[in-house]
């Protein structure tokens, strides 16, 4: 159903945003050193 597709897409986008924020934090730590 359409709802299943929306649910799956939302979960993927949350994972991507979480991964992106984590990678940017790591870059910030490297910059400080």
TrEMBL record:
Transmembrane segments: none annotated. Its main location: plastid. Residues 2-33 form the Domain X domain. InterPro entries: Domain_X, Maturase_MatK. Keywords: Chloroplast, mRNA processing, Plastid, RNA-binding, tRNA processing. The keyword ATP-binding does not apply. It is found in: Plastid. One of its GO terms (molecular function) is RNA binding. One of its GO terms (cellular component) is chloroplast. Pfam families: Intron_maturas2. One of its GO terms (biological process) is tRNA processing. This is Maturase K. It comes from Crocus sativus.
